[in-house]
Amino acid sequence: MFTYSTQLKILVRGYCQETKWRDEHYVPETINEHLEISRVTVGAFQLACSSFVGMGDVVTKEMLDWLLTYPELLKCFTTFVRLSNDIASTKREQTGGHHASTIQCYMLQHGTTMHDACDNIKELIEDSWKDMMRHYLKPTEQTNIVARTVVDFARTGDYMYKKTDAFTFADTIKDMIELLYVKPT
């Protein structure tokens, strides 16, 4: 089991690995090799775990310990967010000499075009969503609040990456955030 500080160290190591890949112009040979690092560097795991810390008595130490084992529910969530991010940002990132994404790894592994790789990655996103829903609807070790919170984060990620990379271009979701939090009906 990892502590939260260990998870932050893993995040930083992942950033360093991606920087090394970029500097060496290395493209991982398989999408799974890329996902081993990029699931971490998307930051979704850290965001989800951080959100539970502030929930007071609702979340127990045992629940936090379980989360730090990186259960399948969180693996599905981080895969979903990483793939969604890469679909939304890959064309822009490739024009700026950015590091390889899951799209380029898929292209290399399967010898496909970017268009075909994106279509196949979209199927993997759907599969991640289905797997997440399976874990949500059939909770085992986690309480419903944990599963529901992770799914709600996934919904947010889906919204942010549905049409554009709204994380990078946050002004595209400014109106939605204002309606939710500043001027709720």
From TrEMBL:
**Is the Hydrolase keyword given for this protein?**
no
In Gene Ontology terms, what is one molecular function of this protein?
terpene synthase activity
Pathway assignment: Secondary metabolite biosynthesis; terpenoid biosynthesis
Q: Per the UniProt entry, what are the Gene Ontology biological process annotations, in alphabetical order? A: terpenoid biosynthetic process
User: Has keyword Metal-binding?
Assistant: yes
Which ranges carry the Terpene synthase metal-binding domain? 6-131
Pfam family membership, one: Terpene_synth_C
Keywords of this entry:
Lyase, Magnesium, Manganese, Metal-binding
InterPro entries from the entry?
Answer: Isoprenoid_synthase_dom_sf (IPR008949), Terpene_synthase-like (IPR050148), Terpene_synthase_metal-bd (IPR005630)
SUPFAM superfamilies (UniProt xref): Terpenoid synthases (SSF48576)
The family this protein is said to belong to = Belongs to the terpene synthase family.
Q: What is this protein called?
A: Terpene synthase metal-binding domain-containing protein
